[in-house]
Amino acid sequence: MLTSLARVQSARSGLSAANKALGATRSYATPAADGRVPTFHPSRVPPYAELLSNLAVVRAQLNRPLTLSEKILYSHLRNAEQDLADVGSDPSAIRGKKYLKLKIDRLAMQDASAQMALLQFMTCGLPRTAIPSSVHCDHLIQAFEGAEADLKRSIASNQEVFAFLESASKKYGIEFWGPGSGIIHQIVLENYAAPGLLMLGTDSHTPNASGLGCLAIGVGGADAVDAMTNTPWELMAPKVLGVHLTGELNPWCTPKDVILHLAGKLTVRGGTGKIVEYSGPGLHTLPATGLATMSNMGAEVGATTSAFPFTPAMAAYLEATGRGEVARAAEGAAARGLLAADKEAEYDERIEINLSDLEPCLNGPFTPDLSTPLSQFVAKAKSDARDHPIELSAALIGSCTNSSYADMARCASLAQQARDRGMKVKSSFDVTPGSEQVRATVERDGIQQVLTDVGARVLANACGPCIGQWNRKELQGEDNVILTSFNRNFRGRNDGNAKTWNLLASPEIVTAMAFAGRLDFNPMTDSLTGPDGKPFKFEPPKSDVLPSKGFSQGNIDYLPTPMPEPQPDAEILISPTSARLEPLEPFSSPFAETAAMGKYELPSMRCLLRIKGKCTTDHISAAGPWLKYKGHLSNLAENTLIGATNDEFDAVNVAQDFATGQKDTIPGVAKAYKARQQPWMMVADHNYGEGSAREHAALQPRFYGCNLIVARSIARIAETNLRKQGVLTLLFENEDDYLKIASGDLVETINLTDLIKPGGDIKTQVKLRVTKFAEDGETVKETFELPTKHSLSSAHLDWIRAGSALNLIKEQAAASSGSGSGSASISGAFAGAAKSAASKLASLGGARGYATSAKAPTGGSRNPNDPNYIPPAADARTEAIKKIVYPPAPSSAKDRAARSATSASAVLPFPAEVSEEVHSTITRAWLLFQRTQREALEERLNKKHARLREALEDLRLEDPRLFAAATYRVAPNKRSPAEQRKLVQLGLVSLPGAAARPDAPTGAEARRLAKAVAGGARLEGLFPREWRIPTQTPSRTVWPSHQSNEA
């Protein structure tokens, strides 16, 4: 028992809590000579032979020089010859005009979005994912005290989510990176990204991986399901924005400053529908991780992704991260023309940047495209024109944007200079390593020690404050300024305080300014005063780009088995009473009642609201404390559009119910509409849905009954996500028409049938009929029509017609299964992958492989409660009996009539005179089964309780003091005697009648110490007061009484 208690208090216990809950075990290859555990697998080498073969077809079809992004994209076409037929050599005939049907090489999912993606995938009835996939636990870890405490607390509070993700990964053959392993984008860069690869990720900053020469694109969960089910992934052929780099950065400038400068030029909409493709001699002066930083923040200008030609720096990084085989294969592909643009390739736009002319930038506040050179910012901060506090309240470095070894090492070079003079930071200073590999390496090389010596706090290897997972208590509701090396700075994003200014900068500038604690300090030119009273001026930062001793892998328990075999018998862990996870119910098609008549007009809708100005995914589906509900749509929907501004009332999160005239929150009115079965639509401003790739921003409005969004413009990922959930998206043909639709207006489609019916004309532009009413809500004031435009493809129309893309995939999977081809296609795809892997293994000299040969699918789960359960046989009577046992709630008069006419004797294959007996037998059998299950559960719990009581008694006899502490009843928000004594010792609390200690900590330091005492290794209340046996007695009302069909 003492050993168990000690284990609870240990800082890190190898496998994650979710791993332990599932009884996972690990095995590894023999470490290499350099001490690294080999992680290379042939699946991580792009299919260069196939891509080069496809590229030859593309060249023959287009007959013109190609950009790099075109080479990678078009070589991934499912059928290049068919898709590019009759396009010709004019780039404008395909860019921005033609949808590409692409084959994806790899998929990565982070824990917040993977929940919904996997819940959707589970409904498809497939035994495994069709492509190599991975899940990364990084978004649900909240920063508060420091790495160890934060990680332990987050694992405990999110254990059911992590257990669900790990169990689903085990079932479907997905690589699982547990909490603490690192940020998804850094792990992908270290393990999966490769030149020429085409990959998707369920996060808007997935393009981070493009820094290694691939095309990595952020998508929603529904797009991830496309990839996992081997469905062709559609993308409007992007335009190509060329950025030509010359010169070389000065010592204070970094690749982060390149993208901050470019964001100022392009604005948050300048890259929409485009790939930013870099070229020029200046590119070869930048490290691979710096290119990743630039492509990461390409998302902030709306770019689809970024593209970089293969450089020696990429090869060096691949070698350093144990992927020499990938580097050598990429060199061969580059020599054959795949990994660089052709000379004379044509770009839609071109921007020239001389790196020698750049200086560090600060971008913000509240938008990542408001770029100001450091010298200008500091000059304004020193003047009366300053409109922000002069003090720096917090400095934060790391996140997926700047958490590489080179970033940490350069910051440490500045901290070393200050430490040598006895200086410490003047503001709070938090450091977030990007991965366990980076953390272990900077710890080994002394970099972490240097940073902590000057006052830094090292957080967990996770997203933390960058995405709002920052439990910041200070300065809430007060104006303050923070400096970060993050990628986004929307209002309230980081700490939930709308008055916090977040200025984006390079980690080096953030670090240097933390020592000043003020914003009127320019580390390139200004001096600080050291403890000795003498001036101190920073020298420019410098460090090695890659660790001279190689990377340390740290805790190898985080490493998953590459390409694991699926375990079809694994149970997916979802509690039926969970508030965090909820199996999905399919959305119905809005055309279900009219499609049979050939009519495909949306039902008459009311306008919920007209959104004013910026409306990001943070406004539509907030993160922060809401992240815990990412797998539970009903609960998460409570935050729908709570950050949106209603143009008519000029107020945030306000809407008016047209029927009652009452004002309420936006989700409050949306719920009322859903309860009344009132379809609705809304009007949006420019770039609706910019920001992250979270599909919840599409799921939530659809869940409440939204059928249509009309906007001035819509961000690419948001538009795709909405269409995948069955929401029609249109754009105003005349942007001024935005003001012509108001809340409560009746909106109808006029000619949507011509567009959306099977075989409809894709060129049809939909018209809307708008009806406005007087104050009584009934008298018609006016009716008029508005023209719109769209970029819908035939696949998008199929999704909307079916009610969602998932409905369509499920129908297609069912059809394939019925024809006997579904399983074969999946097995065939993996058989091909295995064959390819074997050939690659042979070419690499027989390197060790991990995955065994694929097994034939054995069908779905045998547990009827599993969402992936497949009935043993198709029998029409099965559904009829199920409806008797669990009668669905009738939704119409027709349903009620049908239900009343259903009886046991009508569906049971027995004579009427014995049907009552059969019905009674089924009832008794079900109740007996429930009682048996309940008794078995009670017996198991009694055994566990007996063992626990025995352990407690053993502890009482062995160590009465520890037993007393462990069984002490104390509420979590109260102090135990031990904690009270500790607070007195620290001087934080005075005894009655005693004077306060003169050296007692005050202010923020006192609050920090008090929290550390209260949240430390508390034993009090460790054991529960009682152990109740959970029972669930089924109600007899679920079984309808017997009804004879005799007259």
TrEMBL record:
Disordered: annotated span: 852-873
Entry's Gene Ontology molecular function annotations: 4 iron, 4 sulfur cluster binding; aconitate hydratase activity; metal ion binding
Annotated signal peptide: none
Domain spans labelled Aconitase/3-isopropylmalate dehydratase large subunit alpha/beta/alpha: 98-517
Aminoacyl-tRNA synthetase among keywords: no
Cellular component, GO annotation: cytosol; mitochondrion
A single GO BP: tricarboxylic acid cycle
Record's subcellular location: Mitochondrion
Domain Aconitase A/isopropylmalate dehydratase small subunit swivel: 606-734
PANTHER family: ACONITATE HYDRATASE B, HOMOCITRATE DEHYDRATASE, MITOCHONDRIAL
Protein name per the record: Putative mitochondrial aconitate hydratase
Species this protein is from: Testicularia cyperi
